[in-house]
Amino acid sequence: MSQIFLPTINPATGESIQSYVETSISDACDIALQVDAAQKEWAKTPLSSRIISIMKLHEVLLADMDTHAHTITLETGKPIAQSKQEIEKCASLCTYYKRAAPDVLAPTEVATDYQRSYYRPEPMGVVLAIMPWNFPYWQVFRAAVPILLAGNGLILKHASNVSGCSLAIESAFRKAGFPDNIFRSVILRGSAVSVLIAHPAVCGITLTGSREAGEKTAALAGSQIKKTVVELGGSDPFIVLPDANLELAAERCATGRLLNAGQSCIAAKRIFVHESVHERFVSLLKANMQAFVPGDPMDPSTRMGPMISEDARNELHSQITRSVAMGAHCEMGGYLHDGPGFLYPPTLLTKVSPGMPVFDEETFGPVACVCSFASDDEVVKLANTTELGLACAVFGEDRDHAIAIAESLSSGTCAINDFVKSDPRLPFGGTRKSGYGRELGPQGLLEFTNIRSYNIA
């Protein structure tokens, strides 16, 4: 059978970086068996030894940060400063779980009629991680570190446009001294991953990606009675109440919306501003967004790089132009960049309303969409007009009022007076069609464990 090559493209130039040979179905199945065999031994390893391995990984990440960051920026177009921050965040994840794992994974004693009763989390086996390109290290590490600490093995099927990142991550685990085959990467197209989902050595799947990918993965895994955790993106509301600190809200909104060129599941997608402060806020937001000038992502001073691909850029531009044709007003941006690569300018739309593509659909790029509202009831209704429910942000000096608004919204994460960020210490995941299950925090350690009970007479 002839080999299939999967290319990676530099989004900043549109030029080819490298082509990777796709892992054959036969080799992928062999890898699953190898990880299964390694996991059975890894599960016997004391937790203290697993923690030592995680902290060696922490050291490797920081020691090789420049190399890893360069690979991220080359393949995704993310500004190099943000790529370094991503590596630092992965290292902080290791530190958090070093502290948390002993308590979270410890047996819990329960008083019963038996001489002794307790329950404890035990590893499930081999987990398949299907990961996206936009945070190519963080998405992997936030899944892999707790999964491995809990005694499981892991197979990484990364997005094929970040194959260099995928192999570099596997190399980092190897360099940190993890056992052979406990963490393996496979280079596969999305259409070929079903063979691993159905493989008998795989007991669970964690996926971050599109709704379509989540539906297909969950359906196939469900037919095999396999555990899944899925995070499928969001259309997050960012609400500015009349008593908000407008300067702070505008600065955080611009940063939260334009981080990674707006290609984030938890970016501030739909911005709701009270009519009494709407004009002032829009002026401040525009000024803040103008500071994000797209440029060379390898330049440490660049705050915003290109979008990931020409198709992604064209899809965003279509959403914007169709919305403008329906009555949205373009305050800035909204045009296709003339030059190499896949740059798209920071774009600000006002007079956005339900029915427009930028309101009804997830926008995965540097566009801020502002809607006006007159009352709490109206903004809650507008914000909840979506099938998605990943995160939300509310700005207001009366924190109790802001929290009450947030509690009325469907989301897995809330931020008050800040844009939404994932944190190793807090569970992260979605509601509604944004998915189910949790990563990070104590819950991230437990998702792929069997909570086993013991009764001793």
What does this structure look like?
- Helices cover 40% and strands 21% of the residues.
- It has two domains: 251 residues, Aldehyde Dehydrogenase, Chain A, domain 1 (3-Layer(aba) Sandwich); 187 residues, Aldehyde Dehydrogenase, Chain A, domain 2 (3-Layer(aba) Sandwich).
- Helix 3 runs antiparallel to helix 6.
- It has 15 helices and 20 strands.
- The chain starts with a strand and ends with a strand.
- The protein is globular and about 70 Å long.
- Strands 12-13-14-11-10-16-17 form a seven-stranded mixed β-sheet, with helices on both faces.
- The mean pLDDT is 97.
- It has 457 residues and is an alpha/beta fold.
Termini separation comes to: 59 Å
Largest sheet: 7 strands, mixed
- Helical fraction equals 25-40%
Strand order of the largest sheet: 12-13-14-11-10-16-17
For the residues shown, what is the average pLDDT?
97
Name of the level-1 CATH class of the largest domain: Alpha Beta
Alpha-beta content class: alpha/beta
